[in-house]
Amino acid sequence: MPPPPGRPRSPLALVTAVMLASLVLLALAGPLLWGAAADRPDPSAVLEGPSAAHPFGTDNLGRDVLARVLTATRPSLLLALTAVLLGAAPGVLLGASAAVVGPRARRLVTALINLLLAFPALLVALFLAVVFGAGAGGAVLALAVAGVPGFARLAQTLAAGVAGTDHLAAARVLGLRRHRLLHRHVLPNIAEPLLLSTTTAAGTALVALSGLSFLGLGVQPPGYDWGQLLNQGLDRVYAQPLPALAPGLAVLYAAVTFQLLGEVLAGGAARRSPAPRTAPPPTAPWGSPRPKAGEGPAENGLVLQVEDLCVELPTPAGTIRPVRGVSLSLRTGEIVGLVGESGSGKSLTALAIADLLPDRARVSRRTLRLLGADLAAMTPKERDRRLATGLAMVFQNPATALNPSLRVSTQLTEAVRTHRGAGRTEAVLDASDALRRVALPPAVLRARPHQLSGGQRQRVMIAAALMVRPGLVIADEPTTALDVTVQRQITGLLSDLRRDTSAAVLFISHDVALVGGFCDRVLVMYAGTVVEALPADRLASDARHPYTRALVASVPDLTADRDRPLPTVPGAPPDPLVPAPGCAFEPRCPRRQDRCAEQPPPLESLDAAHRVACWLPLPAEAIAP
């Protein structure tokens, strides 16, 4: 398949294509062109060394070694591919079946795979080759059986990611039989990585099959493959090495070709975009509208709408619910701050929205819409694409968020090439422009993350967010590890991003003062719930929840008495394993009453822009400036 316009084929792909084409050509034409010379004995030219007539010498019957090596391409490749396919088919079915069978059968399948993997594949192949008998058929069956456990474990691992999807659960509800579940809902979702693994396994099988023939357990005379030719030339390897090296070089060449083919296919799969069949639209200039079909905000202007979000995490001591009933929304161009103590659930809320929680985490929600689309109603591929193009994350620690082994250019252009269909040149130009917008020179593209300072790495993260032109940016404490000057620069960049692209920003931070001066609205979280939501300009003067007021009071200013300790919130957050039946803040609240320990307060509106979850909120006149 030719590369799409604007995406030049890599040198590795070209080299691999040439090598693969040469193997296919030799396998098809080798027996026709050199078959007669390979089988014609010549008593006058027995065991000759390399010459013009015989570049790699002759064997003990005077047959041309080069002709035999070229002719052996077809049987060597066919036997190796047959062994791989015979091992892959039952292995994939065995491993993938774990996603559609019941719990007891799943445990049995897992135990069987673990038992099979306990034996080294090469030793199993050698043992079975002896049991099945020397010959091409026995060697192929031995390698196929030895390869089953590896394919089974790979398929089991891949199928585990499909087992918990909504579309598979819906198919179960419809009453589809297990073989239809496997055929329609499991195998199509894991076919691509299995194909890549099969390609690379072909090279390994070729080497193993040649090894069995070399030991006399594979192809038997008068047939021959590369392994047997290597055995025949081994006796005179010191006097005339070329007759032995020729089949060895052929095995190496073919094995490397299959390995490179797997690498190229894997790289192409990582870069390939599931874009529509039509050509992608040209990249819009910075700051100009660029919505795609189905990717714009909803009619009510909401970029993100979350209702009743809950997260459960299983632990050895029991299941905890660090996020409980969180509801929030962001409009186009709005910056909303999310504040609270460590452990209040801020980051877990963001990760749940971005679908980045661990596999064992259980997420429930009544509504989760991004850019007008219901994420829960999408297929995993559609949801991944929507999140990849509509949402961007700026993490707290860019040193771990950026891949230390890749250059900045690769990490900036990967997403836009994968999801926007941009060519390499176009993506690099966009990356240079994005770096300029965050006050970094284009030369940073050639750097690796460890060569940059903390502030520069965070700027790169913001530039990466600019690359996909998202509708929502989640900044998870992006200024925590930076000094005050760089903090101001980063918040300024996020403000510019909001102004130029109309993206909404969910800004998570511990710094109440920073959030109050930077955001439009503020959500205060405590023990996994939102306890107050109010405009940011009213945070310092009009907070009504005792917890919010305590957070504001703990922020020092220039008028604070330096002889007195800084104000703190007394007590400690509640134990997530033993949730209180009433208000979570009740043990630490100076205004607590009996009702507070019995019933959790709902988040109720005090006015059009202010909501608070408290049975006894502070009166406005008590905190007026």
TrEMBL record:
Pfam families: ABC_tran, BPD_transp_1, oligo_HPY. Keywords: ATP-binding, Cell inner membrane, Cell membrane, Membrane, Nucleotide-binding, Translocase, Transmembrane, Transmembrane helix, Transport. PROSITE patterns: ABC_TM1, ABC_TRANSPORTER_1, ABC_TRANSPORTER_2. Residues 270-298 are annotated as: Disordered. It is a multi-pass membrane protein; Peripheral membrane protein. SUPFAM superfamilies: MetI-like, P-loop containing nucleoside triphosphate hydrolases. Residues 304-552 form the ABC transporter domain. It is found in: Cell membrane; Membrane. Its main location: membrane. It comes from the Bacteria. The chain crosses the membrane at residues 12-34, 77-100, 112-145. InterPro entries: AAA+_ATPase (IPR003593), ABC_Ni/Peptide_Import (IPR050388), ABC_transporter-like_ATP-bd (IPR003439), ABC_transporter-like_CS (IPR017871), MetI-like (IPR000515), MetI-like_sf (IPR035906), Oligopep_ABC_C (IPR013563), P-loop_NTPase (IPR027417). Residues 73-262 form the ABC transmembrane type-1 domain. Belongs to the ABC transporter superfamily. PANTHER family: ATPASE AAA-TYPE CORE DOMAIN-CONTAINING PROTEIN (PTHR43297:SF14), OLIGOPEPTIDE TRANSPORT ATP-BINDING PROTEIN APPD (PTHR43297). This is Dipeptide/oligopeptide/nickel ABC transporter permease/ATP-binding protein.
